[in-house]
Specification:
globular; mainly alpha
Length: 235
Amino acid sequence: MGGVARSKDRALPRWASTAVVVYLSVTFAVVAAVLVGGGLLLDLDAGFKEGLLLALVVLTLPVSFAYFVIGTFDASAVLGLTTVHYYFGYFVLAVVNAGLFRWIVLSARKRKLVPAGTAHTTPDATPRYPRKKLRGITPDVGKLWWAVPVAVLLSLPQWMVAGIAWCGISGCSGGGFGVATGSEWIAVILSAANGVIMAVAVFAVRWLYPTGKRALIALAAGTLFGLLGAAVTHG
């Protein structure tokens, strides 16, 4: 019985498992597209190539931004072993992100064991039907105190990059080097990515039932957080 409980505790819910598979598959596909395009010397549009690289950076945030900056010091147009290792490094970052995502989800969904003497008197305290408070709020609501700050910390690198992407290194006030346009769409993507991070954090914690209501709140929280980040970084 104990072994079964442990295996269930270590198993991701279906939505999280699907998200991990899709995330790793998309990242691998982009890495393969970059390497095939470079290896076959395809006459691809320069903007398309930049878009693929940007997709890799966005998919593997937050560590990937520093990884990209370091990689630019040894950039090479020739497809060699070093280049292959460099681009597959993005996939390694994706695996690390997936592992972190798995840990966060499992930590958020972990429940305290119900004492054996009270199990028959509290049927609502099972993993499937958690003990509830007023209006469907469960004791897991306390986990939001660490899940939400973790989402904010993971969003800080994207905020920094978005702040530059909106109007350039001098900001939208136009001082210093002046306003630089053309990369606003990068800031929009990063703001949306931050919204997704916050939505996942709010939804992964089983603090409210039914699940549909929690999903709507998570969607609203992610949308507001993304818009807030866009407004702050655009200043």
